[in-house]
Amino acid sequence: MSSHYLSIENVEKTFEKGSVRSHVLSNINLHIDQGEYISIIGHSGCGKSTVLNIVAGLIEQSSGVVILDRKEVNAPGPDRALVFQNHSLLPWLTVYENVALAVNKVAGRSKTSVERHEWVLYNLELVNMLHALHKRPSEISGGMKQRVGIARALAMQPKVLLLDEPFGALDALTRAHLQDEVMRIHSNLKNTVMMITHDVDEAVLLSDRIVMMTNGPSASIGEILSIDLPRPRDRIALADSPRYNHYRQEVLRFLYEKQRKLEHISPKHPPSQARSAQSLPGGGSGSSPSDAAAGVPVLQKVSGAS
Ligand SMILES: Nc1ncnc2c1ncn2[C@@H]1O[C@H](COP(=O)(O)OP(=O)(O)OP(=O)(O)O)[C@@H](O)[C@H]1O
Ligand SMILES: [Mg+2]
Question: In angstroms, rounded to a whole number, what is the distance separating the alpha carbons of residues 212 and 43?
């Protein structure tokens, strides 16, 4: 058995619907140490969320095993907290109540009610949300909702934090703020994190290693890039760092040269639009105009399978 904290070993996944079989993941092997921050990057539809959902226990792999802290994963559990691109807060509960619900569920017996109350406040303070305790999700911004989602996940004290494009729906400035907060929290708490992203800069800035997936079908891990940049990391200082730019280029080279993906452009799109959508980096259709303006490379988000 592997000595790593989280091990994904020989994982394969084939989805079957009637007589249709799609082999999505092939021979996924990944070993993650405790406290490591791993990003997974790859073109849309290659199978990133499928990998994360297998680790979360929400999807069953066709073969292979996932081992977390020496135990095999085969069902969802509070030791793995998932944060999605679009917050999944309960709209009828306040910010405080959304986090308290999770805390009561995982620590209902191990903590007193006063301790649980303090724990909810502690985690909301980590993400700077104490000012909106009694607001409902409809009364706060998208970035704030993601913060509460992250606080809720952290409050469960998971062994691994699973983030599926957690900042993907946010504008570039809000995203940068949240990335900085996640880096600060990670440096304080030393969480083990697996994060899916389409954003090359985000991957380099936050990660200890970047896992680059090949295109599907039958996607596998193409390359793994170790990011040897000292922490704490400062995005402004790194902009001029040759090493940072080297890592960035390595990821871009993998995605746009080695794993170049040509999309089928629907005839209803005029040719000029089709061309500009492919001329990455700088903002494909998945990036907001502000991303493109800020020069943030974000992978093209394409609906449908590969
Ligand atoms: N329940 C399912 N049944 C059949 N096929 C599925 C199912 N879930 C995912 N797939 C297929 O598996 C492939 C990988 O999907 P997945 O959502 O993991 O991709 P992804 O890399 O996360 O994409 P994106 O970047 O767009 O989120 C896709 O071709 C998708 O259509
Ligand atoms: Mg996905």
Answer: 9
